[in-house]
Amino acid sequence: MIPEFDVDICVDFDLAALRTGLSAEDVAGGFTDHHEYECLGLPSWEQAEECLKEEAAFLERAGKSDAPDGLAAIFHELQEADDIGYVELMAHMFHWNDVGVAGLSLALSAARVATFYSCSSGLGHRHHARYPMVGAVPDRERAGLLARLITQAGCGVGQESGRWYIYGRSVGDTHNLGKAILDA
Description:
Helix content: 40-55%
Distance between the termini: 29 Å
Number of helices: 7
Number of strands: 5
Strand order of the largest sheet: 1-4-5-3-2
Radius of gyration: 15 Å
Order of helices and strands: EHHHHHEEHEEH
């Protein structure tokens, strides 16, 4: 199963207070250091689509699992069976982002929205966030469309220090938002 988290979903941001002035070089180089987040650079739409497709397969498998956190169980099993394969999968397909937020992170980055944080949360204690979340800084031109997509996907957004924290009740919600960004 895929855990759902008890979080109030709201859309709360102020375009006038949005962080501005990030260049493509800032984004590509990683403009912030936040919980060891690895900058995604400027991925292509094809890379985002490939990540979302692979992520969908893992989410489908996790949804069929009897484990309380199906993703954690799948990745534990993968790591036990093939350490090297696990590392290659996480590095090349998901760019060291957690499954469930990796697709959203890549879709945002492909849309040239700067990302600085991601965490899928989970039932274990190895995660920073209490629920699935991606940190991003859209420019004002993309913010309106992104806010509409966030709402349509059943996700929420909060703003702090000019940066957005996009979140959902489950990694299924954040994955669906990534697909919606790709489609848009």
